[in-house]
Structures are given as structure tokens and as C-alpha cells.
TrEMBL record:
Cell compartments where the protein resides: Cytoplasm
SUPFAM superfamilies on file: P-loop containing nucleoside triphosphate hydrolases
Domain of life: Bacteria
NCBIfam families: T6A_YjeE (TIGR00150)
One GO cellular component term: cytoplasm
Keyword Lipoprotein appears in the UniProt entry: no
Source organism of this protein record: Latilactobacillus fuchuensis
Keyword field: ATP-binding, Cytoplasm, Magnesium, Metal-binding, Nucleotide-binding, tRNA processing
GO molecular function: ATP binding; metal ion binding
Family affiliation: Belongs to the TsaE family.
Protein name, as recorded: tRNA threonylcarbamoyladenosine biosynthesis protein TsaE
Amino acid sequence: MQTKFKTNTPEATIEIAAQLGKNLQAGDVILLDGDLGAGKTTFTKGLAQGLGIKRYIKSPTFTLIREYQEGRLPLYHMDVYRLEETGASDLGLEEYFDGDGVSVIEWSQFIADELPADYLVIHFNKVDQVDNDRNLVLEPRGQRYLALVQTSFGD
Ligand SMILES: Nc1ncnc2c1ncn2[C@@H]1O[C@H](COP(=O)(O)OP(=O)(O)OP(=O)(O)O)[C@@H](O)[C@H]1O
Ligand SMILES: [Mg+2]
């Protein structure tokens, strides 16, 4: 199953993410893959909004992970771009995946070996380099994420 969206403003991307964010549960893992500037951090702002987090979501490019505790559930926002060469085997990421919060991971393809079996992966595509069109493709892996997509976007 695949669910697709096309957006042409950051606000539209945030709105889709907020709808998903309202239905997140403890232990959920959301992977955000796609080019630089495709909208992964923008999408995370919407997830945070859906979780009731008011604090500004800043890209964790240099810190690797930022934690937000004030929402309905903790949000663990990771950007593992810088782990392309080294991998993540000694970082203990599974403690986040098995924890009480929601893990959101930008550039998850760089830590493919460390990921849990089930997750929702969202692929972001810039339609072309100059305009604001973005294609989002949601691919749930496992029952939990099929249900999450169905609950959030099913009719
Ligand atoms: N439809 C859209 N959806 C999301 N962002 C958009 C859209 N149109 C324009 N933008 C702009 O594109 C940029 C997306 O940047 P963002 O930081 O979210 O990308 P990213 O995928 O996290 O990049 P990086 O890989 O560098 O972390 C922002 O400046 C945002 O305002
Ligand atoms: Mg980003």
C-alpha cells in the first residue's frame, strides 16, 4: 500500500504531517528520506504540531538528535546525515526506538542496519529544483503503520 500527496507550500506539508502527528503512539518510528531541502524538517514541524509541541523545531543536523518532552508524547527528532560514513552501531538508537516517545529520522537510509523491522517511511521528492512542488509517498511497513496511515488519511 502506498499513499501519495503533492504539496506546493511548506504549510501544506505541515498540515499533512500534523494530521499524522495526532494519531502517533509511543514507540512509533517514522523515517523521512529524500533530497536536501525536500521538506523533511518541515514535515517534522507538522508532526510536532500534531503532538501538541509548541517549541520551535530546529534541524538536528549538527546535534544528531533533539528531544521535545512537552507534547502528548516525547518526540525524538534525528538527522543522521552525518553518519553516512560511520554508521550508527554504537549510538544506542534502539533505546529511542523502544522508548516512550516517537522517533523521527531524517536520512534513515544511512543507518539502514540499525532500523526496527516495522516503521512508516515517507519519501520526499522535489519535483524540480526551482519551484515549491513536493511529492510525498508514504509506505507503511507492518500492521501498526498500515493502521496509522488508514486512521490518519483513510476515508
Ligand atoms: N511544498 C513544500 N513542502 C515543504 N517545504 C517546502 C515546500 N515548498 C517550499 N519548501 C521549502 O523548502 C525547504 C525545505 O527545507 P527542509 O529543511 O524542510 O528540508 P530537509 O528535507 O529537512 O533538508 P535537509 O536534508 O537539509 O535536512 C524549506 O525552506 C521550505 O520552506
Ligand atoms: Mg532537515
